[in-house]
Amino acid sequence: MKNKDAISDKVFDIFKWTFLILFFVATLYPILNTLAVSFNDGLDSLKGGIHLIPRKFTLDNYSSVLSKESLRQGAFITVSRTVIGTISQLYVTALLAYVLSRKEFIFKTPVTLLFIFTMYLNPGLIPGYLWMRRLGFINTFWVYVIPGMLSAFNMLVIRTYMNGLPDSLSESAQIDGAGYFKIFYKIILPLCKPVLATVALFIAVGHWNSWFDAMLYNGFNERLTTLQYELMKLLSSVTNQGASVEDMKNSGGMVTPTSIRAATTIVTALPIVCLYPFLQKYFISGLTIGGVKE
């Protein structure tokens, strides 16, 4: 009986690791292929056959991408909205979560239900646009920050984590004369680093990858374009293979829309990829919130 169990376990392990390896390869290959194309000569890339290693190594694609004024301006706006939007939303959401996690707040249940209600109803695209125009946010930078300053889902995640903290910490601080704001800044926030880092990563990725709001609210304002919106326009130009000579030539080399797309994709994804390892330990612990009840 034990031999049968051991054999079944080995068979299961073989299938498990085979599946995981295939899944890993299927996930990693498109990224490595895009990276190889981005470092390959543009005209040579049109021949195909590039997999994991560039056939004709060149930096012309990245030189062309970094020389575009629209991409540089989009990168500046994207970094600005990511930093400001992440900090502002994280602060406002954490402050609201703290208020709704306090047992002495008698309206915490109806207020929480009100925010949950907003998660299931969306006013729609046209009413949202009209509302943004009435508030004067069209063709402004703050349309990227203020409308999304509060997230009901993130508030529930942070509140759940705060509810798991011992009440004795806050009670001891109140006995020593600390007010609610002092308790929030000195006790609650330091203890909430895992969940705050997790939510901050969610918010930052959302801001970094967002392009639809730039197209909808600031589509005709080149000063407020975003990096992802410029990438979207570049990726959608599939019929623009016959680009102008000025766009094709760069530092004596040749680039094509295919190679430019690959280089732009790597440039836009690289900051988030570099950020993730620093938040990984908080990200993993934050995802286990509510997973175990003791």
Automatic annotation (TrEMBL):
CDD domains: TM_PBP2. It is found in: Cell membrane. The keyword Transport applies. The keyword Phosphoprotein does not apply. It is a multi-pass membrane protein. Belongs to the binding-protein-dependent transport system permease family. This is ABC transmembrane type-1 domain-containing protein.
